[in-house]
Structure formats: C-alpha cells, structure tokens
Specification:
Layout lengths: L6 H19 L2 E10 L9 E7 L2 E7 L4 E4 L1 H8 L3 H23 L10 E11 L2 E11 L2 E7 L4 E4 L5 H9 L1 H27 L12 H4 L2 H32 L6
Antiparallel strand pairs: 1-2, 1-5, 2-3, 3-4, 5-6, 6-7, 7-8
Helix pairs in contact: 1-7
GO cellular component, one term: extracellular space
Keywords: Disulfide bond, Glycoprotein, Membrane, Signal, Transmembrane, Transmembrane helix
Pfam families: MHC_I
Length: 254
C-alpha cells in the first residue's frame, strides 16, 4: 500500500496537535483541604479548610468563626456569586461529617491524645467534562487511604488503615457521600469557578506554599516544557517529511 504525504494531511495533523494543546490548556482543578481535630482548646477551631483553584489558594474556612474568607481576585469574584452561601454551608457540613468519622475511628488510632484527620478532596475538569475526582486521608500526619471517586476504588497507603478502609468500603451510604461531593458538587463548583478564572487578567498568586497540594509548581513547568519539546519534535519531523516529499515526488514513497 503506497504511503503518501500531502500539505493537506500535514495541515490536518497540525490542527489536531493544536486542538490537543488547547484542551490541555483548558484543564482546571479544584482542591479542598480539611484539617480536623478530635479535640481542640476553647477559642481554637477544630476544623480548618483551604480551597485551591489550579493550585492557587482563594478561600479559607474555620469552624470557630463558621465563615469563609475570600483571598485574592478569584476569591472576591466568587464572593459576589450565588455560590458563596452554598459553599459556606457545605464546608461547615463536611467539616462536621469528617469530625464524626474521626471520632468513629478514634479507637483504631494508636494515640492517647488528640488525633488529627487531614482530608484532601480533588476534582478535575478537561474538555468540558469531569476527568478526575479523588479523596486522600491522612491520620496524624501519616497518609493512609486514597479513594478514586471516579471508579470507587480504594488504595491502602498505610497498612495500619486497612480496617478503616474495610469499614468505610462496606458503608455504601458513605461511599455515595464521597462520590456525590467530589464528582457532583466539586465538579459543579469547578465549572462555575472556571468561568471566573477565564476572565481574570492573570492567575492569582497564592499567599502560601501550595506545593504539597497537587505537586510542586516546578513539576507543572516541567510538564509544559516536555509537551512543548514533543510538539516541536513532531513539527520538525513533519517539515522534514514535507521537504523530502517535495524533492523526491510521490514516487519516492512507493
């Protein structure tokens, strides 16, 4: 079968590469970080939450004030939307639910004092659809469990949390709760916040180091460098093929 090359095919391939790049640029992520304490002193919050959009911190919440504090330009924009009240209520409810989970598993945690549960809920959107949703649970500073909410698959990171995983996995209501929040509510908010993000003049700068949320910013930079190098390599290959085709004619490829 003859292998031919033409400017039309080269143009179509270039359009496909540009489309793929546009889709990747349009990817967004929303991350909720909760820190829950089984016991706290008077005047100190037992629940603190931070919300990140594309690794940029734009909302803070604590149980002591039961209020959400906007940060940066994106936070101010979200504060002016109807989603603000819903988000404030949901953060408080999720904080209370997570504290109940912590108190339930407290007997299984090998510590005599106060215990801490850190929870990261993450959702991602790309090409106008939800492409990822997950929960990560850290107990007393040790990463223990990971839940892929897209296919409801549990991963045990610390073997000491195996019993906790089995308990939560058997609770279908709890699993549905995790899925609804991450695949449903989180994705809904991300879609709305993305509209605000797109019209912003430039990305917000987080006032804190968020390198531990989704990986460091340098990792993202390396990803774009690799992607750019790959596209450049492909385009150079296409150019060389086109030059060879022009010099040798179609018969060269037969």
């Amino acid at each position: 079968m003859p292998l031919t090359c033409s400017p039309v095919r080269l143009l179509l391939l270039l359009l496909l590469l540009l489309t793929a790049l546009e889709i990747m640029v349009g990817a967004h992520s929303l991350c909720f970080n909760f820190t829950i304490k089984s016991w706290s002193r008077p005047g100190q919050p037992w629940c603190e939450a931070q919300v990140f959009m594309n690794k940029n911190l734009f909302l803070q919440y604590d149980s002591d004030s039961n209020m959400v504090k906007p940060l940066g330009l994106l936070g101010k924009k979200v504060n002016a939307t109807s989603t603000w009240g819903e988000l404030t209520q949901t953060l408080g409810e999720v904080g209370r639910d997570l504290r109940m989970l912590l108190l339930d598993i407290k007997p299984q945690i090998k510590t005599s004092g106060s215990s801490t549960l850190q929870v990261e809920m993450l959702c991602q959107r790309e090409a106008e659809r939800c492409t990822g949703a997950s929960w990560q649970f850290t107990i007393n500073g040790e990463k223990c469990l990971l839940l892929d909410a897209m296919n409801m698959t549990w991963t045990v990171i610390n073997h000491e949390a195996s019993k906790i995983k089995e308990t939560w996995k058997k609770d279908r209501g709890l699993e549905n709760y995790f899925r609804k929040l991450s695949v449903g509510d989180c994705d809904h908010w991300l879609r709305e916040f993305s509209e605000q993000w797109e019209v912003m003049p430039e990305p917000t700068v987080s006032p804190v180091n968020v390198s531990d949320v989704h990986g460091s910013s340098s990792s993202l930079l390396y990803t774009w460098i690799i992607l750019g190098a790959f596209i450049l390599f492909v385009l150079m290959g296409i150019f060389l093929i086109y030059i060879r085709w022009q010099k040798g004619g179609r018969s060269t490829w037969r």
